[in-house]
Design a protein that fits this description.
alpha/beta, TIM Barrel, 16% strand, binds 1,3-dihydroxyacetonephosphate
């Protein structure tokens, strides 16, 4: 049985005042039937982790470097995230692939380091609109999976987030059939590469315009084990009903 996961990606949003949203989540979900993860900007990780210590809310980073330390101005290592109190890290988000030129091999190296450091890697994959319209979605996802996921992946250290780029921040959501097709494909690929035991234990999240109003329908799709939520994770009043929908799924 895979435990469901509701993950929030705050992206480059939030200053100290936003910690109140994490406090509100902790209060609203003292013993949730799903895991809850909030990935605030790096500047808030340590404070968020202190606040969430002993609660059901886990804290994660949004990126890490592939090396443990060194001359990499502006970067943060997996070890530093762990030291700050993070348990997870999002890797290979399409915004990092686009803004920072991250390739599959970069994501794979980061994921290896994250896993070696004891972090759970939430690796993102997803096609562009042009790729979907050219009927290349599964090829793209398959390539990203084999390129970005390291051989040391297990059900404990890996989560995959399927985030179609055209659904991120647009209010446009794939049909449940489209989500089901990609999640089923990812599951089959993981089982083929890692064996049925590991392949079936990795959690698969859907991400892209998940809102309180559409969450239950998305969570009813087979092989959807939760969501990676952007905009609607910034306010507890929006994220909380999404968590509740996942608990009820
Ligand atoms: P939105 O939920 O704002 O569409 O963002 C999705 C996302 O990119 C989460 O990583």
């Amino acid at each position: 049985m895979r435990r469901k996961l509701a993950a929030g990606n705050w992206k480059m949003n939030g200053t100290a005042a936003a910690l109140a949203e994490i406090e509100a989540l902790i209060a609203a979900h003292p013993a949730p039937a799903a895991d809850i993860l909030v990935c605030p900007p790096a500047t808030l990780i340590h404070r968020a982790a202190k606040l969430a210590g002993g609660s059901a809310v886990a804290i994660g980073g949004q990126d890490c470097h592939a090396e443990a330390s060194g001359a990499h101005t502006g970067d943060i290592s997996a070890e530093m995230l762990r030291d700050a109190g993070a348990s997870h890290v999002i890797l290979g988000h399409s915004e990092r692939r686009a803004d920072h030129g991250e390739r599959d091999e970069d994501v794979r190296a980061k994921a290896r380091r994250a896993m070696e450091s004891g972090l759970i890697a939430v690796i993102c994959v997803g096609e562009s609109l042009a790729e979907r319209e050219a009927a290349n979605t599964l090829d793209i996802i398959g390539g990203q999976l084999s390129g970005s996921v390291p051989d040391m992946a297990t059900g404990e250290n890996l989560v995959i987030a399927y985030e179609p780029i055209w659904a991120i921040g647009t209010g446009r959501v794939p049909t449940t059939d489209q989500i089901g097709e990609v999640h089923g494909f990812i599951r089959a690929r993981l089982e083929r590469r890692f064996g049925a035991g590991v392949g079936r234990s990795v959690r698969l999240l859907y991400g892209g315009s998940v809102k309180p109003g559409n969450a239950a329908g998305i969570f009813a799709v087979p092989d959807v084990d939760g969501a990676l939520v952007g905009g609607a994770s910034l306010k507890a009043e929006d994220f909380s009903p999404i968590i509740a929908a996942l608990e009820a799924a």
